[in-house]
Amino acid sequence: MMTNATRRLRALILLGLLAASCAAPTTVAPATAVATASTPVTTARSAPPVFPCGRVTALTAPTATAAGAITLGTTTFELAPGSWTNPPPPIAIGTVSCLSGEQNAAGQFLAQAVLVADAVCGTVTAFTAASAAARGSITIMGKRSVNIPVRAGVTLSAAQTSGSQCFSFDFDAAGNTEIVGFAGAVPSAPAAPSPVFAASECTNATTTTRQVIERYLALSTSNNARAVIDCFAKVWRDKHDANPTFADSAAFWSHAGPATNVVITYLDTVNGCDRFGVNAQMATFGTNNAFTVPPFFTVGPEAGRPRIFETGTALVNTSLATTRCQ
User: Fold this and answer.
1) Among residues 185, 204, 236, which one ends one of the domains?
2) pLDDT, tens only, 261-316
3) N or C: which terminus of the chain has fewer CB atoms within 10 Å of its end residue's CB?
4) pTM over 0.90
5) Domain span at residue 42?
6) Quick one: which of 51, 9, 20 has its CA closest to 294?
7) Residues 300, 102: Cα–Cα separation, whole Å
8) Sequence-ordered strand ranges (E) for 66-224
9) How far apart are CA 215 and CA 101, in angstroms?
10) How many structural domains does the chain have?
């Protein structure tokens, strides 16, 4: 017999709020070497949340059919086949470069390296202070969640490490990125007025796409399955209406427990849909009662009201996104 806990787990998975399994690490296929470091570098394959920026110490460009790899500092990142131009760009050892935050299911990056500025911005979700002798770390949610070391001796205040902030960064002797100072708060737009919802509503004509996500999370203690269902576009409800039904999933979410420490970060707009990353503490599941992997929400208009068209634990490359909001 299926227990209530098992039903709740299945319901949460259906709604796209638990971490999906990542593809197993793969060995990069040999390709033509474009550049290599003069001194051997100890490297390791990396997946998020490592910040994919640093000084180039080795590079094997991908071809149309074979994966490649780039080493930034002491960390190696895989590059998807066909993700670079042919011939590849002339990237020299020592160049300061960064990778796109978008990856395929195997964790391979989908855009070529580019020169970067000296600051990174996002919503701070975790922070460990540096000491005079030891590095600290900071986790920032932008297009995806990344973790960056804080240089030993750098002091950041509590106010500087909460909310949406920007930080200056530099590189250590090995070419790895380190936060070296505070660069100011992320400019924010004025908050939209809070809409008033009918009891059975998650959305209405005055609701913003962000407010739909806020309302959906707030409904986790509502015991109001009808309102939860109203959060989602019909195309998503129909796609996930079996074992359990979408109505059953919505009912379980409506008493899943409170969502606290909610951080919703706008990422981009693709095919008429706004895409957001979400961090939150949840009462009933996840590592330390938090989302194991920060979920992404795709929200757009349906019949004059914004609704959730898709949720997941990975962000699809903009050129590959097939979800379209009406």
Assistant:
1) 185
2) 788 888 888 899 999 888 777 766 544 444 545 678 999 999 999 999 998 876 67
3) N
4) no
5) 33-98
6) 20
7) 21
8) 68-72, 75-79, 96-98, 119-128, 136-141, 145-150, 163-171, 177-185
9) 28
10) 3
